[in-house]
Amino acid sequence: MRLRLIIILLLITAAFTMKSQDIAITPSRPVRMVRAESGFALFSKAYVANALDEWQQQKNNESYSQYKKRTTKKNRNIIIPIIEEEAREEYLELISKTFIIKMDIVDYDYGAEMMILDEKHFGHISVAVPPSSNEYFQKSWNQTTLKPEFFLLNDTLGLASVQFILPNGEIFNYTNPQATENVFLGISNIMKPVYIFGESVRGDAGKNKSDDIDKNIPTTDTINDKTWVVIIANENYRYTTKVKYAKRDAETFKNYCIKTFGVPKRNIRFVQNARKRDFESALQWIENKAKTFGPDIKVIFYYVGHGTMSQRSKKSFFVPTDGRMDKVRTCFSVDYLIKNIGALPVESAVLFVDASFNCHDRKGNVLITENTDNRSNIQITYGNVAAVFACQGNENAYQHESKKHGAFTYFLLSEIQQHHEDINLESLYYEVQNSVKTYSLSEYKTMQTPTIMYSSQIGEAWRKITF
After folding, report:
1. What 3-state class would DSSP assign to 366?
2. For 411, what's the count of Cα atoms within 13 Å in the CB-facing half-sphere?
3. Contact 90, 47 (CB under 8 A)
4. Handedness of CA 301, 307, 310, 315 (dihedral sign)
């Protein structure tokens, strides 16, 4: 696995026409002070920190100009996933060495032709065994060889597959449906990379390089009258808890649109505590603007507030201030919004959504229980649309208490503040994702993963969208 990673790293290096030592990392490094038993997230966090500490050091034979060229943000983004792949391999190797499979036969299901087994840690599993082999399988159980493969599941060890080799040479297989098809050395793609920068994992996650995102807002002399913005801030709800700092989030986002992006105030529709009919009205407003001024205009849609999900369809909904989280018919469909924005004749439309759809508040408290363990099913089928969500469907969108903002909005605006002169959607998204994931792990001990979705029509062009 390490050889494979080194080869990949060398190929990437060649693509950037740099010397191999300019981007090289040590293929093996210890993880200080973190045991594999602590869970993959913490293990990976320390592993990546150590690796980046090493990579960010200036080499003895390296000039300062070579050092600056090597340690760019672009090269760092290339290296981090490779380090994390190595961290996953190392974690699986360490944790699986200490794990002993303890499996017993429970029963044989003649109707389904399945052998039912029980593993002390992973629970019941079913293995396809024909009736003709049933008796021998059970009699020779103590002489059967088990060859398990593992993957990462819920921050620890998951059972991906088991091969049962009987004394007579017969082989039976169990495959976990939760694991992906491509299991390499027990590593599954089910867990997304944990992008964590070295400076963040040393304890200053969430530290703003500037004084205050609400006051130190960059300004431009450019008038960006080709961009139209809808901002919806839902803080005070009739039937559920308030979304703390939602109004502050939206007002600051509006100020960045005006001062930093140069959007005229007349091009912004700002709605506080929107009811369902206000969503319809805002959508109609942006549709009218697109039809009047398109097709070379850009659209930005920003929402902060509660979200919910249909238990039956797994569809996601924005919760109006007069809506009920447990009655989606009173809410506003995310798919409906995306479909209608996708139909607009515009150059690009970018959605920023600071909300979760698993029915938790910004502190992670459960608001209604029926949807909390489900993953929402949002789709973008067509149009020049890209949507950045604060978290994945089954995660929480947390607040940054010390900054008095939602974590997603805070890091979004902080990144714009710091790099507004040279920023596109790709760099903005990845930096925000890195910062939010690091902060949520540090402060809430769980992951919040900003996620981007885009249509096949816009394809990879989403990366170059500017504001």
Report:
1. strand
2. 31
3. yes
4. positive
Write down the pTM of the prediction.
0.59
1 contacts: CB under 8 Å, gap ≥ 6: 85, 86, 89, 184, 185
Q: Which residue do the tokens 């920068």 mark? A: 197
Question: In angstroms, rounded to a whole number, what is the distance separating the alpha carbons of residues 92 and 100?
Answer: 14
CA-CA distance, 401 to 208, in Å (whole number)?
A: 14
pLDDT 10s digit of each residue in the chain, 467 long? Answer: 454 444 444 444 444 433 333 444 444 444 444 566 667 777 788 888 888 888 888 888 888 888 888 888 888 888 888 888 888 888 877 777 767 788 899 999 888 899 999 887 788 888 999 999 999 999 999 999 988 888 877 667 788 889 999 999 999 999 887 664 333 333 222 233 333 332 333 233 334 344 489 999 999 999 999 999 999 999 999 999 999 999 999 999 999 999 999 999 999 999 999 999 999 999 999 999 999 997 999 999 999 999 999 888 889 999 999 999 999 999 999 999 999 999 999 999 999 999 999 899 999 999 987 554 456 678 888 899 999 999 988 889 999 999 999 999 999 999 999 999 888 999 999 889 988 988 888 888 888 999 999 998 998 899 999 99
Residue 338 near residue 349 (C-beta atoms within 8 A)? no
The single residue listed with the structure tokens 């394809």 is 459
Distances (CA, A) of 228 to 266, 285, 437: 9, 10, 30
Kindly report the length of the chain: 467
Tell me the C-alpha distance between 162 and 129, whole Å: 14
